[in-house]
Structures are given as C-alpha cells and as structure tokens.
Specification:
Distance between the termini of chain B: 54 Å
CATH architecture of chain A: Roll
Radius of gyration of chain B: 27 Å
Oligomer: heterodimer
Mean pLDDT of chain A: 90
Distance between the termini of chain A: 14 Å
Number of domains of chain A: 1
Largest sheet of chain B: 6 strands, mixed
Largest sheet of chain A: 6 strands, antiparallel
Shape of chain A: globular
Structural class of chain B: alpha/beta
Number of strands of chain A: 6
Number of helices of chain B: 25
Strand order of the largest sheet of chain A: 1-6-2-3-4-5
Helix content of chain A: 10-25%
CATH class of chain A: Mainly Beta
Chain lengths: 79, 610
Amino acid sequence: MQVNLVDMKTGQSGVISAVEGGQGLEKKLSEIGLHRGRQVKKISSVFRRGPVTVSVDNFQVAIGYGKAVRVMVEVVDDA
Amino acid sequence: MMRRIVLVGNPNVGKSVVFSQLTGSRVMISNYAGTTVEFTRGQLNTESESFEVLDAPGTYSLTPSSKVEEVASSLVDRADLVINVVDATNLERNLFLTTEVMERNVPVVIALNMIDEAKHKGVKIDVEKLESMLGVPIIPTVAVSGEGLKELIDALPRAVNKKVGPLETSDRWSYIGGLIGEVQEVVHRHHSWLETLQDASLRPLTGIPIAAVVLFIAFQFVIGIGELIAGFLEDYIFNGLYEPLLVYLSKLMGGGGFLHDVLIGRLIGGEIVFEESLGVLTTGVFVELGVVLPFLTVFYIVLGFLEDSGYLPRLAVMVDRSMHRLGLHGYSIIPMVLGFGCNVPAALAARNLESRRERFIACTLMAVAVPCMAQLALIVGLVGRFGTAYLAVVFASLFFIWVVLGLIIDRVMPGYTPSMVVEIPPYRIPSLKAQAKKLGMRIKGFLIHATPYILGGIFVVNILYTIGVIDYLGILFAPVVQGLLGLPGEAVSTLLIGFLRKDVAVAMLVPLGLSARQFVIGSVVLAAYFPCAATFTVLVKEMGVKDMFKSAVIMVTTAFSAGFILNLLLDTILPPAYLAIGLVAAAIILALIMGSNSDRRELSDFDRAA
C-alpha cells in the first residue's frame, strides 16, 4: 500500500517510493539520507498539520507538513 | 606558506570538538545542527609542520543550495587537506558527503568519530576493510575524550586523493549501500530510557506538556535564581562593601564637580543610589556586575543545558505549527531562544534558515520582541518593584507584538516559508566540563564586549547632560514623547543611549521618577524600537542594507504604536493584570483566526507542481 508520510500511521515502517513535486525537495531529502528505497519508521506527528518525525537507522528527521505530504512510502509492516 | 586543513562533515558530528582538540582553541559546541555558522580558524602544530585549520559549518552535501553549503564547498576548494569527520553511528548517511569530498581534487583523512557511541548502539564497523575499500586513512576517534586524536594527527601525511566518482545522487547511494553491506553490522538491542524519552518529547500528547514544563522551569529558574543572586550581591557586596568605598571617594572629590559627576554621579538626598546616580563607578558597575551578570549567568547555565541535551530541535518540532502562522517554521525558535541571552548570536543563528524571507521575518521579530537578558534583568528588577502584574504587561505586550507582527508580515510579504526538514539529534547527558567551558566563554565574551559600552554609555550620558543636549532634545521631542507615549520629554535620552546599551537605557528611566504605567511603556518601547549597536551591525551584515532599512521602519513604527496603545489602555481603561491576560488572549485568538498563509501558499504551490 502506498501512502504519504502524513497518512502513514505512527509506528509503521515503509520504504520511500517517490518524492512528488520538485527535484529540489528530492535532492534535499536524499542528501540528508532519505532517498528512494530507504526504509523509514514513523515516530510521531504533531496533530494533523504538524511535522512528521521518522527514524532511519540511527538518526531521526522531522519533516514539516507541507513536505511530508509529498513523500510517498510503500508500507511494509503494520506494527 | 602554511598548509591549510579544512574540517568537513555533517551537522552535529563533533567537528567543532575535533577542531578544538586539534588547535586548542575554544569554540561553541552544542547538540544540534548549525551551531557553527561561520568557519573558525585555528592552528595545529605537529612535530614536523604547522597547519592552518578551518572548521567548516556542518553540511550534508557540497552541492551549494544554501549559504552554509556554499561556505563549506568553497572551503573544500581552498583546502590543501581535508579531515572528513564522520559520525560512526550513522556511517551510511555520512558517507554521502565523504564521496562528494573525495571527488574534489584534495587529499582526505577520515575521522570516524563517536566510535564509542556506535559500539554502544550495537553498530560494528570493520575499519580496516572500509579503509582499503575507500583507499584513504580512517582513524576511529572519540573527540570529546581526545581518544584517537594523536593517531589522527599522525595520519595526516598519509592523506591521499582517491577518486570515486563523479556519481549521480542515486548511483552514489547504491555505491555507499555496497560499502555498508561489506563493512557494517548492526546488532539489535533494546531501547534505553533516554530513547523512550526521546520519542515521548516528539509526540504531541506527551511532547506539549514536556515543552510547557521545560519552558516554565527554565523561566522560573532564570528569574528566581537570578533575583536571589542579584539581591544577595546588592545587599552584601554593593551596599555593604562597595558603597562605603564610593562614599569615601565621593568625599575625596568634594561631593561634586565634573569628574565626580562622571565617576560617582549625582547624589540623591546626599547619598549614592546605585540605580539612580548614573556614575560610571556607581550605576555603571552596579548594572553590569550586580544586575545583568547574575541573570545572564543563570540564563546561560539553562541555555547550555538545553543546547547540549539536544532538546531544542524537539522544541522546534512542537512549535512548528504555531510558528508557521508567523511566517516561520519550528527551527526558527532556536534564534529566538538564543536572543534572550544576546541578540547578536541569535542574528547569526538565523543564517541556518534557508530563505531570505525567513531570515527577514526571524531577524525582525527577534530584534523587536525578544529582549536580551541584560535588558530583561533590568526590567525584572525595576518594573518588578511596581508589582508582578506590571511586569506581566511588559512580557504580554512583547508577546503580542511578536505574534501580530509575524501574522502581518507573513501576509504582506510575497512568497511563503517552506516547511522544515531537520535532523533530531539523540539526547545526550551534557558533560559538566563542557558546560563549564562554554559558560566561561560566554561570560568572558559578555564582560569583554559589554564593559566598554556600559561604561562608555554612562560616560556619554553625563557629557550630554553637562552640555545640555538632553534638556534640549527633551524640549524638542516633548510633543511626540509626551503626547504619544505619556512620558516626560527627557525620556528621549534613553532612546539615544539605548542604541549603545539597552540595560543602561532602562536604568536611566529611574531618575525620571516615572509612575508604574510610564515605566512599563518606557520598557516596552525601549525593547522594541531599535536594536543596540552591536546587534544592528550584525543584522546589516546578515540582511543587507535594504532589508535592514525595511526592518528598521517596522521596528520604529511598531514600538511607537505599541507605546501609544499601552498609553491609552494601561491603568486608564484596564488594570495591569487584565491587560496582560487580554493581550496574550488577543494574540492567540488572532493567530487562530488568521491561520497560516505560508501553509496555504506552500500547498497550492505543490498542487501546481503536481
């Protein structure tokens, strides 16, 4: 199932499948370690329109709502 | 010529710690991305050679898309040798930058830092294998304890330029993925209590109460302990020991005359009054050491703890939604928090914000509505005498200005503020030694930079009084100052001196014999009307002359409007407690009604692109 980071549930893991709407964002996320094919786990979101925090390996990244809706993930496990 | 070493690495991997270990220089170190915004220069002397060492700001990539990346990229181009500091706990991510650095024409040595933390987290790295695969020397280090630093220095002559690319972004990741598969093994282990707390402070149901408690304790601690120390100093040191000395000196100078006025100031009822006499040795020394220093010290202890624990980026996540309404995103809470110490480092920290729009809004709001601790100490001490309710009006007014001005600028200014992408560092228990060192640096910085301004400011006041300039200006500006703000004409002199030092300016309100409401108005206008000279200089550099001019117009207009509104309402229509509550409530309601312009613009921009 493919969803964006905002719709993904806290605690779920998924593999980044696409970054929509702009090369700039894809590049920025990729440099910080969130590139296509990378597995992420959603740690938290601050209400509906707040930032989403995901963890990757040993680091965590907080992504504001406006960008989090553009990051698509393929959910791998329904923990 | 000395050969030049440049330290390059991701944000928050300990570059600055490596730098200070190599060069012995003292630099600011914190547990969040973006502590070093400008490069720092130092010197390393080995047995055979002396090097110039530059500490570049942390960056994820050398492709320049922000100011910080530009600085890092151009430093690498000017380097004779690069030490790439790599966070061993996040090897894969860090190697992205490593491969970019290796594509440039420069010999590289890798410092595999925080190797102890990696072991702790169950990350095993085959250093020898990685070394042979990459072809450059790799030295495991624990920079905070100095482990591996000697080996790092010994490895410098072995630095080589090994080409890996050039690679496209996705190829780069698959190349790195291949390396990681060969050299790294991760053992799964249980969450530590710090990690549980880590996640709790990011989830709204637990994170918001945590943020509220942290901020409340920080505020209470600074004000409470600050007052306690200041009171002790005033009673025992200043009144008990210092005053008799000054009385003697005053008598020696015959109780009057120009020199007496400058050094001791005016005697109030035949006595020295530290808050009012306005002499260099009386009010000057008292303001700097007796009032500002205690509050500033406590503030920097609290700030140091917040910085090094790694809490600030989590606070940024919690306030992100609200900050969007002001045309900013969560990470701009960091310059705001720093601003309460001193506006100068806060203006520098705004450099981490990506767009010119964000920097403009952040700098303007900070300069207008975030008073530095020096000024706050005086406000707390002097306005506090009229009662806590009046003090609350000062804070509430500044909060109101901060919110409403943000809402307005976000609407009026074209464009939008894109949402943030920030790394959240792990919690770390701050080391006492590092804290003491940082506190020492900050206090020393304050004493060195503030002393000439404080003493000079008081000296200037005396000159201006003596030659009658202040009386003249008082008459000239009386219509504005009196009509608009309800303050005596001479109050204009505090606005003049406020450009030198805001704390001295607040102290200068005392001899004017103001009522409670006048003191509140004076304090708010002084906080908002213009930054002090030191902050102004940095702001011009950061924003450019044109934006600074716009910002200054906003500041002056805001300050006088706020003063005028307070003059209309405070104690005439509303008692202070009601006014304070009303201002805070009005600001919050306005923010809720107006919503976030940036949010809407960013989403519609996205729809267009999609």
